[in-house]
Amino acid sequence: MSGLTITLIIVASLSLYLAAAWLDTKHNWKFIDWFNGDTENPFKATKEQQFQTTINHKDQEIKDLKERIQVLEKIVTEPAYELNQKINSL
């Protein structure tokens, strides 16, 4: 092999590695781990990300349920509601 061919192979390998590192940083695709033999799918969400998504979903659901409870408490403690219940019981 000539010196030019070896230089081109080294430059191409370095460029590929730098492109993968940039994609890792920008999109969190984990190409470098994949190139180093870690056989995990770089496009699959990690368990930590899935766990965080689940926590966020549950937090939002708890917030929504608290708001609904507050609305129901307002309705039940309203004087007109109590009066309506007494009239209906007669």
Task: Walk me through the structure.
With 90 residues, this protein is an all-alpha fold. Helix content is 80%, strand content 0%. The protein has four helices and no strands. It has helices at residues 3-27, 31-35, 47-77, 79-89.
Give short descriptive properties of this protein.
single chain; 90 residues; mainly alpha; rod-shaped
Précis, in short:
The chain is mainly α and 90 residues long. The chain has helices at residues 3-27, 31-35, 47-77, 79-89. The N and C termini lie far apart (103 Å).
What topology emerges from the helices and strands here?
Layout lengths: L2 H25 L3 H5 L11 H31 L1 H11 L1
Gross geometry: rod-shaped
Major sheet size, sense and barrel closure = none
Total beta strand runs:
0
Helix/strand structural class: mainly alpha
In helices, the fraction of residues equals: over 70%
**Secondary-structure element string:** HHHH
Measured distance between first and last alpha carbons: 103 Å
Q: Approximately how much beta-strand content do the residues carry?
A: under 5%
